[in-house]
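Acylsugar acyltransferase 3 (Solanum habrochaites), 429 aa
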Amino acid sequence: MASSKMISRKMIKLLSPTPPSLRCHKLSFMDHINLPLHSPCAFFYPKIPQNYSNKISQILENSLSKILSFYYPLAGKINNNYTYVDCNDTGAEYLNVGINCPMSQIINNPYNDAVGVVFPQDLPWSSSLNRSPLVVQLSHFDCGGIAVSACTSHTIFDGYCVSKFINDWASTARNMDFKPSPQFSASTFFPLPSETNLSSTLPPTQPSKRHVSRMYNFSSSNLTRLKDMVTKESHVKNPTRIEVASAHVHKCGVAMSMEKSGIFKPTLMSHAMNLRPPIPLNTMGNATCIILTTTMTEDEVKLPNFVAKLQKDKQQLRDKLKDMKKDMMPLYTLELAKNAMNIIEKDTHDVYLCSGMTNTGLHKIDFGWGEPVRVTLATHPNKNNFIFMDEQSGDGLNVLITLTKDDMLKFQSNKELLEFASPVVESTK
């Protein structure tokens, strides 16, 4: 098993100090009720051009220092009540680590869990209260390849913001004159009530050693096949990549559950939906709502039927939000989350959690030495979790699937799954 050795650890300070007027960054209602975890993302680069090999760390450090001047809350400290960030310019943690194996041993491992070595130990999905809101690790493999990972506080950022920040960081690394334009104004759209104590509204999530993750790829051609199946057998029009792919893995999850128990159990699938728009695209913070889709019969699980239900649920949510005052959106989102938690606690449904970091450019993150061969996250603490990302070509989809160990053994042998999705392994030769 690969192990890591710390080479250096430092705090990256802001190139330009945060103005006193911005010292207190008010968190929004949605920030406040979010789980205070570090969300992990990693980028693998197997072949580094000779002219970059000796200055990679300096490029990352210099560009990070500059970008933090624009993303200043990431260099501050979250207060104990999750109501504001003290933007005190403490800086972001930056680790230089050596990995005693070739990169191929990590990214060709059948289970994604092996990538944990490129993240700061015990940090992914752990509390961000007493650590820097941003922790970066540069990992050097024996083969000469590198991985760049970032763990960002979910209290400050949702997935959209993580993508925006890393894209802007990479742009700065390539051109130090680049100037991003993030706006830390989410609290003006979703203000925090004057009297609130909702930090524990949602139960804390703890990583489980019983969970494992694998990444599967839906090629562009297989996504087209799935879309054709849906449109030919239903009145659904223009299904999206995420709709057909999530419906397919949901169906395979149901098959796995029925193989275990011998009976059909109702299901609940949650999809995260970005609220930009209606709020501006450069708004930093948490701005998502969840779409809840249930099935009560095996017939509803069939691909055309499930996609039709999912589209209907999405449209109903859009219609609901369209006429809703923005300051009511967080309360409505919280209500949806509570409804989902009630179902989870009653154990009447198999629950699947679906989110995506697609159409964000993460698959092409270039700090100056080329695009990554793999973009991934650490194993999620929740079982039955599906996270969709763009494949390296940009046309297909990769999905990181987290299940219990026993469920994964059944899931990965599902013939219908493998007809449309392939396990991802990457040759670095």
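Confidence is low (pLDDT under 50) at residues 196-207. The CA atoms of residues 15 and 66 lie 5 Å apart. ok done for today
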